[in-house]
Design a protein that fits this description.
The chain is mainly α. The protein has 20 helices and no strands.
């Protein structure tokens, strides 16, 4: 109960935070109405970045999601390298990620409705229990030397199907266990879990695969979701906020109509699709770069994966102060530009340390882009439909992501990894330019500090 008091706006502690947020949001809105940028930029500080850590439930949330992400990257590193070595095809790795993410297009819809009506915790636990079974089955098959490419893709389909009940609910949970004023801090710090997952899971997965094949890595991965489920059960069972009596099949179109109607949401969604296709595919590209440009093996793939994890942790701490310094919209523009430049430069490197630095920069700025975009969407969306809005964004983002991976593999196989990286970096810049031309207020978007407080993006 004490965690809920700290997190929810109705009890006394949450009400005090909400009251302060109301004052700040009102001032920001007034400033926007006077013609200044969307939400007034505030002085960045380490304290503002770490504010969510003061909530006990949020600290437990970080522990649970970190355990989950470590095992996901153990599993992913082992499986992707196994497929690459079995087939010799970079495009095959892209199809693995397609199998992993395609089912999410379908399960995100019920997951978004589920979280808005019943709260996020149940979906998170369901996902973790099913992941334990899938990872365990994969480990048993690897030990029996029966882990074929076909079987790996089937298991990836199962994991992808249940992942819909993790992605949106976990993001909603991060924002619900803290007061509204700490939403940017909570979403920024939640990226630490992805970073730690890649650092520990990538290094351990690469080392285990290099030393003894995929079986040990997959066996260790099977235990992580169980730990995550146990921790998730200690989190507050925050309720859903959708209270309408209409059938649930009508819930999702409401959120979709809202996103189509609001220009800022359309711009953020469209740019997100471009970044997912031509930027976030660096996750798939790591395997190609390690083999073709660095001419290395599974151990160095683990090191490269860990480098992206370090970048993500850095981005998690940088997101809030940079967002306050530059403004959220400008942060989006700057991070996409830097990410495109670093992505392109990876094609010029044949050095492991230099490549590690570059992919670390890519992961750092793109996680800042992603978390800032999610924070803006949460701020803009009506509270009762945030789960569905995030589900729509996640459906689009992770639904189109594997297409970028497949295209990267096809281009790398045909023209070389370096040429593929140049094409993708240039395309990313072009997409950003088109987005800003079509929606000029993008650089001035900001975050309202409390539920129900409008941003000037809505006012304009």
């Amino acid at each position: 109960m004490s965690d809920v008091t700290a997190a929810e706006p109705l009890p006394s502690d949450g009400a005090a935070a909400a009251s302060a947020a109301t004052t700040a949001a009102a001032a920001a809105t007034a400033a926007g109405a006077a013609g200044s940028p969307t939400t007034a930029r505030q002085r960045p500080s380490i304290r503002s970045s770490l504010g969510a850590l003061g909530v006990p439930a949020y600290r437990r949330y970080l522990v649970g999601t970190t355990a989950n992400n470590i095992t996901v990257w153990l599993f992913q590193t082992a499986l992707s390298w196994t497929i690459l070595t079995e087939t010799g095809s970079a495009a095959a790795v892209g199809f693995l990620f397609l199998a992993w993410t395609l089912p999410t297009l379908f399960t995100m819809v019920p997951a978004g409705i589920f979280v808005d009506r019943l709260g996020p915790r149940r979906g998170m636990v369901i996902s973790q229990v099913v992941s334990t079974a899938a990872f365990g089955a994969c480990a048993v098959l690897a030990i029996a030397d029966q882990l074929t490419v076909t079987v790996a893709i089937v298991i990836a389909l199962i994991v992808g199907a249940i992942d819909g009940f993790w992605s949106a609910p976990s993001l909603v949970m991060a924002g619900r266990v803290v007061p509204p004023a700490l939403l940017p801090s909570a979403l920024g710090l939640s990226s630490i879990t992805f970073g730690c997952g890649r650092i520990v899971g990538g290094l351990l997965g690469g080392a285990l695969v290099a030393a003894a094949g995929p079986a040990p890595a997959l066996t260790v991965a099977a235990f992580g979701p169980l730990i995550a489920a146990a921790v998730t059960l200690t989190l507050p069972n925050v309720p859903g906020l959708e209270t309408s009596r209409r059938g649930t099949l009508r819930d999702f179109p409401d959120a979709l109509a809202w996103m189509v109607r609001v220009p800022a949401a359309r711009a953020l969604f469209g740019l997100g699709l471009g970044v997912a296709t031509f930027g976030y595919c660096y996750i798939t590209v790591l395997t190609i770069v390690t083999r073709d440009l660095l001419e290395s093996g599974a151990a160095d793939l683990g090191v490269m994966t860990a480098a992206t994890g370090i970048g993500i942790v850095a981005g998690a701490f940088a997101m809030e102060p940079v967002g306050r310094l530059l403004g959220r919209g400008r942060t989006i523009v700057v991070t996409v530009l830097i990410g495109a430049l670093a992505f392109t430069t990876v094609g010029l490197s044949s050095s492991l340390p230099v490549s590690m630095l570059l992919v670390g920069i890519v992961s750092c700025v793109l996680i800042m882009f992603r978390t800032t975009t999610i924070a803006l969407l949460q701020s803009l969306a009506p509270p009762r439909m945030r789960g569905r809005v995030l589900s729509i964004f996640e459906i689009g983002f992770w639904g189109i992501f594997p297409i970028g991976g497949i295209l990267a593999g096809v281009l790398a196989d045909r023209f070389g990894a370096a040429t593929m990286l140049y094409i993708f970096g240039g395309t990313l810049v072009a997409i950003l330019v088109v987005t800003v031309i079509l929606y000029r207020p993008l650089p001035s978007l900001g975050i309202a500090l409390e539920d129900g407080a409008p941003t000037t993006a809505e006012a304009t």
